[in-house]
Automatic annotation (TrEMBL):
Keywords: Ribonucleoprotein, Ribosomal protein, RNA-binding, rRNA-binding. InterPro entries: Ribosomal_L18, Ribosomal_uL18_bac-type, Ribosomal_uL18_bac/plant/anim. Part of the 50S ribosomal subunit; part of the 5S rRNA/L5/L18/L25 subcomplex. Contacts the 5S and 23S rRNAs. CDD domains: Ribosomal_L18_L5e. It comes from Acetobacter cibinongensis. The gene is rplR. GO terms for biological process: translation. GO terms for molecular function: 5S rRNA binding; structural constituent of ribosome. This is one of the proteins that bind and probably mediate the attachment of the 5S RNA into the large ribosomal subunit, where it forms part of the central protuberance. GO terms for cellular component: cytosolic large ribosomal subunit. This is Large ribosomal subunit protein uL18. Pfam families: Ribosomal_L18p (PF00861). Belongs to the universal ribosomal protein uL18 family. Transmembrane segments: none annotated.
Length: 120
């Protein structure tokens, strides 16, 4: 019987494989959420570099947000990572939700990133 962590890793690997096939050289917007915070980064897998990153722990967001575990904080992180990615010259990305369902905080971050100028 597989453990919870093994199942998560399998889900993540399955999704990354599909993304790699469909990406066509575009960077990916990767999301990680913990119980207290949410993180997003735009990664160029060809070069193995992070092009832009944002999290609810960033100084400017930490002061404005009450906690990093709400949809409001995910919305703010999505807008910030989109702003930084556009400044780095990236507008087309592929969305990597990791092992998480496209629901709640992950969905709020994705929609805010779209509003901020990223298209996926």
């Amino acid at each position: 019987m597989s453990t919870q962590q093994e199942l998560r890793n399998r889900r993540r690997a399955r999704l990354r494989f599909q993304l790699r096939r469909k990406a066509g050289g575009r960077p990916r917007l990767s999301v990680f959420r913990s119980g207290k915070n949410i993180y997003a980064q735009v990664i160029d897998d060809v070069q193995g570099r992070t092009l832009a990153a944002a999290s609810s722990l960033d100084k400017e967001l930490r002061e404005a947000l009450k906690t990093g575990a709400t949809k409001d904080s995910a919305n703010a992180v999505g807008k910030l990572v989109a702003q930084r990615a556009v400044a780095a010259g990236v507008s087309l990305v592929v969305f990597d939700r990791g092992e998480y369902l496209y629901h709640g905080r992950v969905k709020a971050l994705a929609e805010a990133a779209r509003e901020g100028g990223l298209s996926f």
